[in-house]
Structures are given as structure tokens and as C-alpha cells.
Specification:
Blueprint: H1 3-15, E1 19-21, E2 29-33, H2 38-47, E3 55-63, E4 72-73, E5 77-78, E6 81-82, E7 87-88, E8 115-123, E9 128-135, E10 142-144, H3 153-164, E11 167-169, E12 198-203, E13 208-213, H4 241-245
Length: 246
């Protein structure tokens, strides 16, 4: 039994129904936990000597509002990678990419939150890693802070708050970390405009930096279509005269 499957078995036995495991994640064990059980589970993961995840490597926010959706179909691959999409596709979310049971409708408003935090944990004692995902609940979205368990969560939670708008309750100093103090909105949320809301410039008359509504127009790039190329010909194919002129 390898280290990943061993940890998977150990966690399933220890937490029973508190964790929902993501099958098919081969690089490390990946599990989901409800916000109401987050602190309980994290405390055990940190303190239990059989688990001992003493290091929190990262917390990153995620916006799942359009997760699994696609606007374009792709063609076959080449040795340089996938070709760009050329046909519009109906938007839809595959069942395997949804939260929990894809056939089960959310039971309340809190279950409809599309923001989540991903916790990357490392056990130095046992040399293994765990990816823990927790969906934010409420409006605005909230999660309990894990600063009292891992002190490194302080800046990670501030970053997730700044970029995604997730509020971490009981955080000792939840302020913006990367954007300006007067910044409006959260730039990594998928409902945030691509061109932003405001811009800054130096005003020579006032001799200071001023804020103003953004003046640049949003430019949406269309998918680039791959043209036929003799470098990507399949076995037995030959260039035509038209190809040579292209």
C-alpha cells in the first residue's frame, strides 16, 4: 500500500462522515469538509500524532461559479498541444465537476455558495501531504479562521479575503493584503469586470495621484483558429497546391 492510499484509509477511518473524499486525485489525498466542521477537523489533523500536519503550506480561494463550463469545443491535439476552439458550445457543468452529489439540489441558501478555500497541508513527521477543500457559506461568504491552529494562515486568509471576498471569522487582522486600501471589489471573483472599476493617474494640476473611472475599453480575444500546416500532417498525407500557397 503506497503512502497516498494509506493516508486515505487512515483519514476515512478517523473522520468517518466528516470528510468527503475526491476519488481520482492521484497526486495527493483530496477531501472536502463542511464549514461547520472545519476547525474540528483541522485541530485533529494538526494535533493527532498519527496525522501531525504541522505545516499549512497555502490557502487559496476558488470561485466555482462557472467551473466545468466551456464556451468552445476543441479539435484533436498536435505535438504542440490542443488546437484552439472553433465552434461555440452550449454552456453546461459536467456532473463530475459539481459539488457533492450532482443530482441533489441545494437544500438551503448557504449551500449555493460558489466560493471556497483550499488548504494545502504538509506533515513533516510523516512526509505526506493533504489537500482540504471547504466551501464558504452565507452572504457575504464566511469561513472560520484557522490562525489559532496554523499561524501561517494569517496572511493566506488575508489574501483570500482580498482577492475573493471570503470573510474569515475570528481572524485577528483581516485587512486587504495586495490591493489598495480604497480598492472596491475582489479581482479574482468571476463577477469582477475584466477591465476593473477605477484607474489611477498623476494629475499635474493637483500635483498628486488621483482616482477616476476606468477609461480603457474591454477587449475580448476570440479563439485563434489553427491553420493547416505541413509540420502537423498525419502519416500518408501530402501538401496540396493550395496548402503550398497558404
Amino acid at each position: 500500500m503506497n503512502a497516498i492510499s494509506d493516508l486515505d484509509t487512515q483519514l476515512r477511518k478517523r473522520f468517518d462522515e466528516l470528510l468527503l473524499f475526491k476519488d481520482g486525485a492521484r497526486d495527493m489525498v483530496t477531501a472536502e469538509v463542511d464549514a461547520e466542521h472545519l476547525l474540528e477537523v483541522c485541530r485533529v489533523l494538526h494535533d493527532d500524532q498519527a496525522l501531525r500536519f504541522e505545516q499549512l503550506s497555502d490557502i487559496c480561494g476558488m470561485d466555482y461559479s462557472t467551473y466545468g463550463h466551456t464556451d468552445w469545443n476543441t479539435q484533436s491535439t498536435t505535438h504542440t498541444g490542443y488546437s484552439r476552439g472553433v465552434q461555440p458550445d452550449a454552456r453546461g457543468t459536467p456532473k463530475e465537476e459539481t459539488w457533492g452529489d450532482a443530482d441533489q439540489e441545494p437544500s438551503n441558501e448557504a449551500d449555493q455558495s460558489h466560493l471556497a478555500a483550499i488548504y494545502h497541508l504538509l506533515s513533516l513527521k510523516h512526509n505526506r501531504r493533504l489537500r482540504l477543500r471547504c466551501r464558504a457559506v452565507g452572504t457575504p461568504p464566511r469561513l472560520p479562521s484557522v490562525v489559532t491552529i496554523w499561524n501561517s494562515a494569517n496572511w493566506y486568509e488575508r489574501e483570500a479575503f482580498d482577492l475573493f471576498g471570503i470573510l474569515f471569522t475570528e481572524h485577528p487582522d483581516l485587512r486587504r493584503l495586495l490591493t489598495d486600501y480604497g480598492f472596491i471589489g475582489h479581482p479574482f471573483r468571476k463577477d469582477f469586470p475584466l477591465h476593473g472599476k477605477v484607474e489611477v493617474r498623476y494629475d499635474p494640476d493637483q500635483e498628486r495621484v488621483v482616482y477616476q473611472p476606468v477609461s480603457i475599453e474591454n477587449r475580448v480575444l476570440m479563439p485563434r483558429v489553427m491553420r493547416d500546416d505541413n509540420r502537423y500532417l498525419r502519416n500518408g498525407e501530402e501538401n496540396t497546391e493550395e496548402d503550398a500557397k497558404a
